[in-house]
Amino acid sequence: MNIPLIESILQNQAAFLFILVRVAAFLAAVPLIGGAGVPTMIKVMIVLSMTLMLFQVLELKPEKSLNLVTLTTGVLGEVLIGLILSLGVNFLFAAVEIGSEIAGMQMGFGSANLFDPISNRQASLIARLEGLVAMLVFLSINGHFIVFENLTLSFELLPSFGFYPSGLSIEYLMHLVSKMFLLGLKIAAPVIVTLLLANVIIGIFSRVIPQLNVLLFSFPVTIMLGLLILGLSLPVFVSMITNEITGLRTVLPGLIIRMQP
User: Fold this and answer.
1) For helices 40-58 and 13-29, what crossing angle results, to 10°?
2) Which of 39, 74, 126, 158 counts the highest number of beta carbons within 10 A?
3) Each residue of 155-177: pLDDT tens digit?
4) Cβ neighbours of residue 152 under 8 Å, at least 6 residues apart?
């Protein structure tokens, strides 16, 4: 047992608490770790291990005079910092889900849902598939290292009691929301364009051949074309997700800087 570490924690309880709260708030909302499919004990162990590691590296020293009001204010600030930082990562996976949902509805999979244990809710087949691909890409290019690196950076740029809810942070969050919807449309664009052209062609055939049962004919065609386009556009999808994950090196520090006083 590391006795000096325990003594250091007892001497700097407030610093340890602030690190613990920010890390816990961040990991509770971030994808992969914060999902309902991850056992609670695993989450607790990850939070404690990261807190102990950061406590030894950062050596934070909060204000000496802490009362109930200042302690509560500091804890709430740490929670907000962790949650806002997690939004930078969540927007990426939300964009993948939005684009996949749109593509799935265009293909006729709007009512074909599966239970997603990560988000603890129903998800469409295509959203589940592309979400898993995005997570694999995230792990394969060490996106989790980028996230943890910026979490550590937040303690240097935003120490305890350093959170300031300014208009700049809200404006930047709105900018990230617009980018989220734009990325979702880019992901769904190949399927949308292809199936739009396919529906136009099917409509022309229905006018030329009135005996053609368009309803029965269109479903297998749209599903087949949709799956084909998804497979062909997979390299483009991976490239877009890779660029967005590497872009987190700019997005997360941007959030941190805009939360400074």
Assistant:
1) 130
2) 126
3) 888 887 777 777 677 888 888 99
4) 54, 57, 58
Could you give the count of Cα atoms lying within 13 Å of 228 in the half-sphere of its Cβ?
A: 9
Distance CA 224, CA 149 (A): 42
Q: What are the tokens at 11?
A: 């001497």
> What confidence category does residue 121 fall into, taking pLDDT thresholds of 50, 70 and 90?
low
Token duo for residue 62: 């909060």
Return d(Cα 96, Cα 237) in angstroms, integer.
9
Whether the Cβ atoms of residue 150 and residue 252 lie closer than 8 Å to each other? yes
User: Residues 232, 94, 160, CA angle at the centre, nearest 5°?
Assistant: 140
List pLDDT tens digits, range 42-86. 888 988 888 888 888 876 665 556 777 878 888 888 888 888 888
Cα 258 to Cα 261: distance, rounded to the nearest angstrom: 8
Q: How far is CA 109 from CA 31, 85, 125, in A?
A: 24, 33, 7
User: Does pTM top 0.70 for this prediction?
Assistant: yes
